[in-house]
Amino acid sequence: MASVVVTLDGSVRAPDAPLLYADDLGAVRGDGCFETVLVRDGAPLKGRAHLDRLARSAAALGLPAPNDGAWWAAMQRAAMLYGEEAGGAEGALRLVYTRGRESDPGTPTAYVTVSPLPERARRARTEGVSAITLNRGYSTGLGTDAPWLLLGAKTLSYAVNMAAARYAQEQGADDVIFTSSEGRVLEAPRATVVIARGRTLVTPPAEQGILPGTTARALFDAAEDKGVATAVEPLFPVDLVMNDGVWLVSSITLCARVHTLDGRPLPDAPMDGTVRSLIDAGIENTP
Ligand SMILES: *Cc1c(COP(=O)(O)O)cnc(C)c1O
Question: Residue 120 pLDDT more than 70?
C-alpha cells in the first residue's frame, strides 16, 4: 500500500481508499505515462528532470500537456508528507498520468503516490544483481522509424517489461538486459545500462529505441564535472563480457552492479565506488 496519495488538485487522499473509476483507460488499456522518483529527507530528487520527461511522454502519447505547476506542487507535497511520516527515510514516488475515463474523454487522471523503498531495490544496491540477456526483437532504428511504438516514452504499458523480469526470475536471475534484433545492447526493463571500459563510462545512445534515463544523465553530468571520461556509443554483447564493470542505473535502485551475466561471473568492477559516489553527487545536483 502507498503511504501517501495526492491528486493533482492538491488533495491528500486516504492511501487505502479507492481512487480510480472502473473505466479508467490507464487501468483498462495501460494508456498513460508515469515516472518514478526517489524521495530523500522529504524531497523529490531530480524532480525537474522527471517532470520534463513526463511532459515528453505525454506529448508522445497525445495527452494534454501536463500542468507543470500543479505536478510540481503535488510532488513536493507528497514527498514532504512521506518524509514526515517516514522520518526522512527514502521512498519511491510515482507520478501517474492516464488518458482518464473512457466515458469522459479529454479529462486525464493525474495523481502522485509515495511508498517505502522496495526491499528488492535495497538488495540490488548492496548486493548487485545477476542478469540474463533477452532479445527484445526490435531493430535499433525502430525508435525513430516507428514513433507509434512509443519507445522513448515511459508509458504505463509495462506488462512486457514486467513479464521479462518474471522470465528472468524463473531462470534464476534477478534482471534482464535487452538486446535489439541485430544484437546491440539496449537497456534493462526498468534501468539504463552503463559499462566501464578502462576508466571510461559508456552507455548506448537513446536514439536506439532506449528510454533516456535521468539517473544515467545525472551520472554522466557528475562524471564530466569530476573529469571522469564518458561516451555514448553503441554497445555489443561482447561489451557485456569484456569490460571493467556493468551497472543497471535507475531512479529508485540508483545503481545495481551486474556481477553475473547469463550464468557467468563478470570481471571485477574497479570503478564501482566511483560510479556510486558520482550517482549520489549527480542526483543531489540535478534539478
Ligand atoms: C524508468 C526507466 C529507466 C530508468 O530511468 P530513470 O530516469 O533513470 O529512472 C530505464 N529504462 C526504462 C525502460 C525505464 O522505464
Answer: yes
Ligand 1 pocket, mutate which of 37, 192, 219 (most atoms under 8 A from CB): 192
CA separation, residue 13 to residues 87, 113, 179 (Å): 20, 10, 41
Determine whether the shortest distance from the Cβ of 215 to ligand 1 is under 6 A: yes
Which of 85, 117, 149 corresponds to the end of one domain? 117
Are 190 and 67 members of one domain? no
Last residue of one domain, picked from the residues 96, 117, 138: 117
Q: Are 78 and 6 in contact (CB under 8 A)?
A: yes
Contact 109, 26 (CB under 8 A): yes
- Per-residue CA distances from 10 to 161, 176, 187, 256, 264 (Å): 31, 37, 35, 34, 50
Single pTM value for the model:
0.97
Atom 3 (ligand 1) nearest CA: 191
pLDDT in tens, 1-16: 679 999 999 899 999 9
**Helix 68-86 × helix 47-61 angle, to 10°:** 130
Of 275, 274, 254, the residue nearest 129 (C-alpha)? 254
